[in-house]
Amino acid sequence: MNAVPILILTAALASAATDKPFVAPFESRAGLTGHGRIDELAFDQWKRLGIQPANPCSDEVFVRRVYLDVIGTLPTPEEASQFLSDQDPNKRGALIDRLLERSEFADYWAMKWSDLLRVKSEFPINLWPNAVQAYYRWIRTSIKDNLPYDRFVRELLVSNGSNFRVPEVNFYRAVQSKEPQTIAQAVALTFMGARAGNWPKARLEGMAAFFSQIGYKSTAEWKEEIVYFDPQKSAPGSPLGPAVFPDGTPAHLAPGQDPR
């Protein structure tokens, strides 16, 4: 039998025998407090939805979770012991900061982003080794250098150039079709967590119009391809219709402006 339910049951029975309030052994007795704007937004949403948040976890649970979440590995016995014996009330934030500085953080999250961004040299993506190496190095360096998320996404979506020398453009080469609708679906899934293929036709076409003027051309170098804004391709007004953001806001584009 799983040891966790047994442990909780034992603690509950002991609590009942002593008339003390039961507190799960994996939870902290500390109240839930916010530590920034994101927490405030989350708390407000839980309140609107009638969701009762879980109690804060114990230090023993936290140290295991934070190592797995941030660097993808468990703490050593020495690291866990050092954290648990630390009496600093701000030790959790300090541990997170230390983990974010470790090389394993960049390695682990570069691996995760490489999955999301389809960094693969062979079928069905066929980025080929030169492009894969450049693309991966760009992703890992961006994470290591703490490139803000909005800039990370912007550089992937608006860059132009050789897939060997401007690694970000491999985002478009990793999509399995060069059709604007397929690119729009890849963008929505990767950065919004949304399956745009299920959107109404007009909404998907409005999103696809942003990617209707992407050009591709090969070079004399083996497997190199240039990705660029091609103003000669059909403008966003035709045949997909005007470029419209997913929330329904029309995009106001100047003549000749790259809609991305």
Helices and strands, in order, run as HHHHHHHHEHHHEE
CA radius of gyration: 25 Å
Major sheet strand order: 1-3-2
Q: Number of DSSP strands?
A: 3
Q: Tally the helices.
A: 11
- Structurally, the number of domains stands at 2
The pLDDT mean sits at 90
Parts with pLDDT < 50 across at least 5 consecutive residues: none
What percent of residues are in strands? Answer: under 5%
What is the structural class? mainly alpha
Distance between the termini: 55 Å
Largest sheet entry: 3 strands, antiparallel
Gross morphology is: globular
The share of residues in helices is: 40-55%
Could you walk me through the main structural features you see in this protein, from its secondary elements to its overall organization?
This protein is mainly alpha-helical and 260 residues long. It folds into two domains: 29-103, no CATH class; 104-229, no CATH class. The chain has helices at 3-18, 37-49, 59-71, 77-85, 91-100, 103-116, 129-144, 149-158, 170-173, 180-192, 201-208, and strands spanning 161-162, 214-218, 225-229. The model has no long low-confidence stretch (mean pLDDT 90).
